[in-house]
Amino acid sequence: MPPLALPLPRLRPLGLAAGLVLAPLAPLQAQVAAETPAPAAEPAVTPEAAAAAAAAAAAAQATALAEAEAAEQARRAAIAAEIARLAAEREAARLAAEAAAAAASGAAAQAAAAAEAEAAEAARRDAIAAELARLAEERAARARAEAAVAACMDAAGPASAGVPVSEAAQRAVFDRLRTALAACEEAAELAPEAGGPLFHLATVAQARGQHREAVALYERAAAAGIGAAHTRLGDYYNFGIGPIRPDLDRAIAAYRAATDLDDPAGTATLAFMYRLGRGVSRDPAEMIRLFRAAADQGYHFAQVNLAQTYLTGEGVPGGSDAALGIPDPRAAVPLLAAAARAGNMDAALALARLYADGAEGVPPNAPSRLRWTRVAAEAGHPPAIAALAYLREQGLGAPADPVAAAQGYVAALETGEVDVDDLRAAGGPRPPGWDRQTAIEFQLILQARGLYQGAIDGIVGPGTLGGARELGD
Predict the structure, then answer these.
(1) Radius of gyration over alpha carbons of the chain, in Å?
(2) Does 272-379 match 139-231 at the fold level?
(3) pLDDT (tens digit, 9 = 90+) per residue, 339-361?
(4) CA gap 308, 295 in Å, rounded
């Protein structure tokens, strides 16, 4: 707002007033004298009369001068009062103008401050909105990355460098990897620090023979804390896979890193290194400790190998060490049973053989032998199918069943993985002769298949065996 303009009264020049106040009295006296009528000619007066007249005239003149002086003083006082009034008005106008200017300046400053505050608040709100948007985008990106990692791991399964329990399990691993490949590639892009997808991509590259790429991916997964990746790196340097040259020091370091991360496969492999004295000194006690650690994590491969040590003293000089409690067949039983329950059918058959022959602390037990043989056979293990047929033929662990025995022999041969000469290997190097009724049932099946034209006489000779061989071809 512009300063308030107050009209000021127009002042007469101070010079005029000062002149009036300071003018000499002589002219005034002359004026008074001029205005006094000249006396008429009178007759001569006496000196006394003349003196009296002069005195009277002087008194009158003095009175007039006094009145004029008083009037002049009154006029000067009026002028002074007017000057004071005008000065007061000017001062009041000045003060009012200054007050108005100050008010206007304060209002402008207040308006500027308010504008600055509003701008600052708007900037703060914009910054908060931008930060919220950034955080929302980060959360969304993190959610997408976590979803991709979860999809990869759900499809491919956990990172594992362990030996599969069977060929079927091995095929299932690669089937899952094929299904999960796209999700794992997306996860590695959105969450490059996630070790699980990197491990699975490394496994795919290794299966494709892209070993340098596989090693690079395993190294990234290992840096992310994936113990199985350390194990796979140890395998590369242990065995010299592809273009990677053997380096036992690096292999041992990798297996130790895997063991520190509780990877059972790396722990079991390190146990083997101590068994063989490969890259480290032979140490049966350390071998057993490491196998036990991996077995306690449920790793079937470690369970079977530790059981083998307890059964035969494998890895222990002379096959015996009382301080280590080797051998101890009884300690092998729960290890083999655990491995069998995990799906290792070799363990189930080893347990069946243990119950067949018996050992110190483990007497022969036909029903247990039958039970574990059946477990392996029902899992589709070809030698176990043949072994179960033999037990049914001989009536071991249960009453003999010639029909089931013959059907079992045929089923084992049809897998193509059991040779005719090994069909009754469960009976040892020299199994007893065929049960006649089982042989007859076997010949009948071969005859029905058009593979045997001889007599149904229960004698398993060259003709019967020839037809049996055709089952596996």
Answers:
(1) 62
(2) yes
(3) 999 999 999 999 999 999 999 99
(4) 13
